[in-house]
């Protein structure tokens, strides 16, 4: 039985409703959702008596007065860094700063700053119990341009977490420990997920190890079934409490936890002594739904909780980093927020105007037939082509044979592993897709596996050399489709492979999308 709204909770609910009114008035008095709200999520939480103790976003300010940096990027060309800030106090990210700084090269996100002033920033996750130094060391950093969107019509970028990517802070200030109450919300891409462990945001162990039941309290999103699951095929919002993904009082299956696939997903987990809750909703419209509200799990070790107060993004508490997902914003609070406060925050999120950024190219709409032309000066008559399973670039023109034209033609499909990205089906070999294997591209029949879906999914963005589009691999987000010696790979901007060479990289990974030859 959840606690009744009495005393402090009733006063907090009233203050939250007042804050919500300020948000609504601010939007109505503007010219639409493009106006920044006068009261942002952390202002609403503070008004409800549960202030933010961590606030992370790559898209907008989470306080009405915040005017600092949102995140930092590092470019490959010279390893210099640049802080990415806001267009105005309390407003939206100045993505043009990133675009200018990263033009002609690649960038990764090195820091996601904490807007609370507590310095609970997120940086590259260190080795942990799952993968210590002998198994590869620090996690990967997210490609800074792999998740383009708009917020209130302004260009922005999310944090695209491919397997192996992770962020963490093990030395935090003010985050709940032990059985102290806390709340958290996050906005994820509800179409980008996998069954790897574990795409989390929230409270974790300070030593990057599995320290036992109840040492975590984080929001999980994905479709793994090993420790718990809900209805349908997933993905599900669950709580990662360490050694268990929970969506109710019972371990395993819980019928009240639905599959959710909103393009932009608001997800909430909050907990206090012997009581916790999961809520979620569409971040673009509507209200929140409560999936669970009740006692702690009836499994030993979770009551009382033993939270340790680190913060993680994209990984599990022991640095399990096989997960995938996309993060846009999230906060953690001191104290257990009321539903009225959270409802006001949801109204603010909806008013913010999250929307897909798209590729900037109408030809990349699922169902379109296209061809992909190289932009490097040597090769502007060459197109991505296949002959059976082999993929290369070949010269195609109006005098080419019908077979050559068909081999260079593709049907755009919604991404097999992420519907906000794309997959390319062969125009003349139905059911076969462009996919990478050992970093080289082939055309293979779709075998229905999760691995194939990931290997055959590419996320379009503006061309790295200013022409056409570049296509990031869904499961290796710092690698892009590149031609090299007329073969085609997914290549990083620098690395141990010859096809990762930095020379001409921006040109080689940029493709003009045309109508198909066949």
TrEMBL record:
Keywords: Glycoprotein, Glycosidase, Hydrolase, Signal. Residues 372-513 form the Alpha-L-arabinofuranosidase B arabinose-binding domain. Residues 41-355 form the Alpha-L-arabinofuranosidase B catalytic domain. Residues 1-36 form the signal peptide. The keyword Repeat does not apply. The keyword Chaperone does not apply. Transmembrane segments: none annotated. PANTHER family: ALPHA-L-ARABINOFURANOSIDASE B (PTHR39447). SUPFAM superfamilies: AbfB domain, Concanavalin A-like lectins/glucanases. It comes from the Bacteria. InterPro entries: A-L-arabinofuranosidase_B_cat, ABFB, AbfB_ABD, AbfB_ABD_sf, ConA-like_dom_sf. This is Alpha-L-arabinofuranosidase B. It holds the Pfam family AbfB. Belongs to the glycosyl hydrolase 54 family.
């Amino acid at each position: 039985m959840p606690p009744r709204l009495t005393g402090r909770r009733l006063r907090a609910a009233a203050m939250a409703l007042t804050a919500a009114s300020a948000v609504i008035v601010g939007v109505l008095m503007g010219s639409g959702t493009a106006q920044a709200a006068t009261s942002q999520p952390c202002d609403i939480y503070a008004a409800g008596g549960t202030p933010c103790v961590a606030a992370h976003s790559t898209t907008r300010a989470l306080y009405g007065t915040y005017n600092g940096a949102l995140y930092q990027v590092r470019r490959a060309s010279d390893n210099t860094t640049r802080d990415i800030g806001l267009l105005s106090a309390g407003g939206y990210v100045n993505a043009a700063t990133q675009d200018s700084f990263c033009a002609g090269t690649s960038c990764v996100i090195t820091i996601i700053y904490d807007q609370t002033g507590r310095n609970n920033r997120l940086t590259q996750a260190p080795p942990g119990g799952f993968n210590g130094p002998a198994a590869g060391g620090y996690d990967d950093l997210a490609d800074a341009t792999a998740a383009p969107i708009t917020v209130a019509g302004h260009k922005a970028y999310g944090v695209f977490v491919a397997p192996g990517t992770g962020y963490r802070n093990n030395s935090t200030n003010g985050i709940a420990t032990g059985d102290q109450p806390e709340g958290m919300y996050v906005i994820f891409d509800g179409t980008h997920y996998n069954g790897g462990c574990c795409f989390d945001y929230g409270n974790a162990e300070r030593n990057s190890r599995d320290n036992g039941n109840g040492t975590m309290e984080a929001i999980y999103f994905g479709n793994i079934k090993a420790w718990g699951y809900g209805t349908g095929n997933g993905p599900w919002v669950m709580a990662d409490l360490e050694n268990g993904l929970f969506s109710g009082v019972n371990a395993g299956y819980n019928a009240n936890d639905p599959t959710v696939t909103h393009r932009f997903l608001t997800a909430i987990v909050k907990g206090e002594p012997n009581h916790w809750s999961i809520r979620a909703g569409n971040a673009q419209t509507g209200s929140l739904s409560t999936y669970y509200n009740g006692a702690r799990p009836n499994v030993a070790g979770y009551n009382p909780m033993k939270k340790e107060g680190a913060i993680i993004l994209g990984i599990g508490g022991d640095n399990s980093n096989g997960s995938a997902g996309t993060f846009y914003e999230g906060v953690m609070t001191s104290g257990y927020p009321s539903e009225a406060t959270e409802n006001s925050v949801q109204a603010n999120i909806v008013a913010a105007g999250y929307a897909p950024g798209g590729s900037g190219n109408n030809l990349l709409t699922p169902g379109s037939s296209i061809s992909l032309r190289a932009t490097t000066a040597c090769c502007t008559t060459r197109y991505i082509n296949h002959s059976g399973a082999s993929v290369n670039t070949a010269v195609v023109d109006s005098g080419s044979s019908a077979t050559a034209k068909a081999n260079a033609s593709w049907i755009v499909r919604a991404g097999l592993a992420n519907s906000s990205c794309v997959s390319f089906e062969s125009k003349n070999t139905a059911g076969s897709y462009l996919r990478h294997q050992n970093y080289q591209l082939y055309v293979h029949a779709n075998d229905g596996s999760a691995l194939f879906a990931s290997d055959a999914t590419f996320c379009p963005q503006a061309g790295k050399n200013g022409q056409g589009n570049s296509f990031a691999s869904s499961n290796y987000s710092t690698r892009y489709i590149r031609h090299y010696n007329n073969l085609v790979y997914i290549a990083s901007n620098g690395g141990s492979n010859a096809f990762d060479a930095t020379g001409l990289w921006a040109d080689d990974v940029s493709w003009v999308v045309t109508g198909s030859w066949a």
